[in-house]
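RETRY 2/3 - previous attempt timed out on the joint model. Re-submitting the same 764-residue input unchanged.
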Amino acid sequence: MMLEMLRNIVQRVNTAETLEEALNIIVFRVREAMGTEVCSVYLRDPLSNRLVFRATEGLNKNQIGLLSLAHDEGLVGLVATREEPVNLDNASQHPNFALLDGIGEEPFHAFLGVPIIHHKIVLGVLVVQQAQRRKFDESDEAFLVTMSAQLAGVIAHAQVTGSIQDEYTDASERPAGSTRVSGIGGSPGVAVGTVAVVSPVADLYAVPKKTATDRRAELRAFKQALESVRADVRAVAANLVDQLNAEDRALFDVYLSILDDSTIGAEVASLIKAGQWAQGALSQVMIEHIRHFEQMEHSYLRERAVDVKDLGTRVLSYLQAEAQDRREYSDRVILVGEELTASMLGEVPREKLVALVSVRGSGNSHVAILARAMGVPTVMGAVDLPYTKLDGKTVIIDGYNGVVHLNPSDMLLERFEELIAQEAALTKDLEALRDSDCETADGHRVPLFVNTGLMADVAISLDRGAEGVGLYRTEVPFLMQERFPSEEEQRQLYRQQLEAFAPKSVTMRTLDIGGDKSLPYFPIEEENPFLGWRGIRVTLDHPEIFLAQVRAMLKANVGLGNLRIMLPMVSNLQELQEAIDLVDRSYEEVLQEGYALTERPPIGVMVEVPAAVYQARAMARKVDFLSVGSNDLTQYLLAVDRNNARVADLYHAYHPAVIHALRWVSDSAHIEGKPVSICGELAGDPGAAVLLTAMGFDTLSMNSISLPKVKKALRSVMLEDAQRLLDEVLLMDNSDQIQRQVSDFLAERGMAQFVPVDLSEQTL
Ligand code: PEP
Ligand code: MG
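RETRY 2/3 succeeded.
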């Protein structure tokens, strides 16, 4: 009963279009559910830090938005500062009691206030009051706490949405500062630009809201689209005329009659005339009609919902195609979508595309991989982004920290424009380093390798002075296919990579799928995919896939000899042995096929599971090299999902546990006389690169964009100083302290521009 009530309220609040509406539903419903006389919400204004009276049922509504309390004033302030409920039978006797003049709370004695907290931050206070002198009981308190915890997320979301609205019913609702929405950094870099929302092709439920700039053109487009669909339906009917009986043919007439139905057409037209763009008007009307049909009692009529949806979708496709032709992009486009796909990137000319934001997806999504290859700053997994309302708005993208700044103030825009200019200047500066070796100021060589996946990566990598490939992610080309590529197809692909870099070495990783990387033709659905069937576990269970891949690599290597093979996600020695045996078997098979193989290429193992850290020596004895996958290693050491924006602030690349593990692996490899490299994102962080060099990593492999910066950083430091920094860091017990120490080290050597910053109004 109570659970149902909670659910009902949250559901209702979720349907609200604005923050104001959400708050009104909350106070109305909570007052009703608790049977009290008053329910109000106070929200904290982040800039003034005051608690503003924002909604009420039972007190004076005229004062909404006008009255406020200091953050620690009155009982409401007490709830907010203590971050705990306050439950009193006679509020006026409490020492903190401060009467807010004008809201009419004098007659109400009993007071129960609970904080509204989202991600550790107090958003405000939810209060119920009653005239009768009585204490709200334990279950009232528990109910209100539960309610508030659930509503916090909804309120936070509504606040973000509210911050980008053009029209405010209530002036107090317009936020003075920008609003940040966090996701995951998908590709580094910062950008300022105008949002263009891309929607999936012909999805009535994903059409962004927009006002029509030219209503007549929108109307014309709608009529034209209707005409085209009519023509299509007639053409299909005509084609099938011989094969269908009269009854079936009548179905097409039903179809056409839905389209001709003057109500649908008229409703859409009137919405367009009222200012909506054609796609928005169509989707709104169609969705209403679909819902209407779905609720019909008669099953025949319920079925019509499918027809209505199909027709609406067809009309939408025409509208989208037409809008795409007509669409003009600003000079700095930020493409935003619910789930961006690689094909959507092609919609905007490259020179205008400055950034990408995808509401869903992770750093491993296809789009993020492409974005890194193209050097386009990207934020993934920005789940709280009210993207359908963003079209045409100016936003800031911070691909380093995975943040989108909405409604940015002039001050913030200015700072980011400066940062963009600095980055451009730095890129130019760094070009000069292209042909110089990567070595420390005192001559210690650290070869810089790149991580690749797409052919597009090759040219850029060579251009930036890569000395080899430390990680070729073979799953990337696999993602582009509609089935597993054949051995011969793979051979050609691998040959291209090997040839492009020869004689520099290319480290090819065997297929690493599972986790968040699933192939469209080989879906893996699991409750807990990162601890499930991924990496080597999949390919050892499917030796046919593994063998074909390794054979293709070996054949591609003929006459070049720059191939190295690397095994992902190994968590024990049996797996490692089994994989090595399979590589040996492939080698024999290819030899027997008559290929002129020289010796078997080096085999390496990735250290990306904590177990592999502690077995690094035993593993090193079995292979030719180790390579640390710090992305996964960090995720598993800290038990923090690398793709979950909610815990992104716990994903500490500089966590002492990570630093110690890295040093342990490096030492273990060297004790066994084997080289060790690192191929996670960490290697591309200039500060971390200094630490890794001090630890003795033999090569660093990174995203090609980071390479020039890392080279510059390493060329600016003495190995001895780097080692001293490492010694200091190894004694520290928290990530922030380590981060600060490394940042200071860089800044002291004139590399303040390599220190990561997370700009926001509060830090300006
Ligand atoms: C890693 O885990 O650090 C790594 C390099 O592999 P991937 O990012 O492809 O999982
Ligand atoms: Mg990995």
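The pocket of phosphoenolpyruvate (ligand 1) is lined by residues 471, 473, 512, 608, 629-632, 679-680 (CB under 6 Å). Closing ticket.
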